[in-house]
Amino acid sequence: MSSGFTFTITTAGLDALVDAQNGSTDAIQIVEVGVSPSQVDVAPTLTALPGETKRIGALAGQSASETIIHMTAIDSSADAYDVRSMALYLSDGTLFAAYSRAEGPVFRKVDIASFLFSIDIAFGEAVSDAVVFGDASFAYPPATESIKGVAELATQQEVNDAEDDTRIVTPLKLGVRMDVETAARVGGDTALQAQLTALLARTITGSGLITGGGDLSGNRVLQVLAASAADIIAGTAGDRAITPAALGPIVKSLGFNGYISIPTADPARLVLVQWGRFTAAGDSDTTVTFPMAFTQAAFAVLIDGTNETNTDGRENAPRVRTSSITASNFRAFTTLDSGSPCTFIAIGEIDNS
Description:
By secondary structure, this protein is α+β, with helices and mostly antiparallel strands. It has helices at residues 11-22, 156-161, 171-188, 190-201, 229-234, 244-247; strands at residues 2-3, 8-9, 28-36, 54-56, 59-63, 68-75, 81-83, 85-90, 95-100, 107-109, 115-122, 131-133, 203-205, 210-215, 222-224, 252-253, 258-263, 269-280, 284-289, 297-305, 319-320, 329-334, 340-351. The radius of gyration is 46 Å and the shape is elongated.
C-alpha cells in the first residue's frame, strides 16, 4: 500500500533530528515500523504506540529530494492483523513519528498475503543528510515480456538507435522515430512517391442520388438524401430516395373486407381507403360497419349491387343515404323486394399514430 497520510513527529524524534542536523550526532536511522489495530490519540509526547501488534524490521528507504524521504517496509510472515495506527522507530528505540485514524483499517493483512508499506515523508526544510534507513533490501526485478518489474524509459537517441531491448519506448518518442523513418523511406523511393502522388490525385464523387466525395487527401462522406412524406406527395424532389419511414406506416388489411392507408403531406394524418361486401335487405335500410373506423372523418362512400332476379333492379339498385355516413358506418337503402348483394368503397382519414 502507498499512503498520503500525515505523520506527527514526536518531541523525542524532533530532538534527534535536530541533533543530527546540527552535527551533534550521526544521522538518525529509522529501522522499524510498528503497527496497531487501535485508533490512537497521536501527540508529540507519544513514546510508544498503544496496542502495538508487532514491529516490522524489513525496512528500506532513500532521499527522494532534500525535503522528502521515501520509505518501504514489507512483512512476508503468516501473521494476520489490521492496521489503524503506525509508528516509525529509530535504532535506539525512540518513537520518531506516528499516524492514526478512527475510520476503518488502513490495511488488513491476511495470513496468505504480504504487507508492503510505501510512504513519502515531506519535511519543511532539507533533512536528506540527517535521516538514513535500515540495510534491508527488496527485490525489484527488471521488467521482461513475462515478468512484471521495474523498467527505465528509453531516451530519444536509444529509440533512434534501435539497439536496446531493455528500456521502454514511450508513444511520443516512437512517433518521432516513425515520422523520421517514413519521411526517409518515401523521400528515397521515387516509385513509391509516384504511387502516393497518383493515389492522392484520385477522387471519389457521387452520382445520381449519391452526393458528396472528393479527393483522397482527407476523409470523405458519401450520402443519399431521403425524401420526406411531403416530398413524396409533391413529387418534385427527384434527387432524393423514398424510404419506408417516409411512406409509412402503411396500415392495411387485405381481403374481401379490408383497408389500406396512403400517406399525406401532413405526417400526422393518413388517407384510408376501405372496401367490403354486404347484402342490402329488401325494401329497407341496411347499416354497414366499416372494417376500420375512421378516426377523423369519412369523406365518401360508393356502393354497387342489384338482385339479378329482379328485372327492375337497374332502377331500384341500392343507394347510400349520404346523411347516414359516420366515422364507423353508413346506411344503404333499396326498394327491391328481396335482398341484393353489394360492394362498397369508402374513403376517409385517420390519425397517424
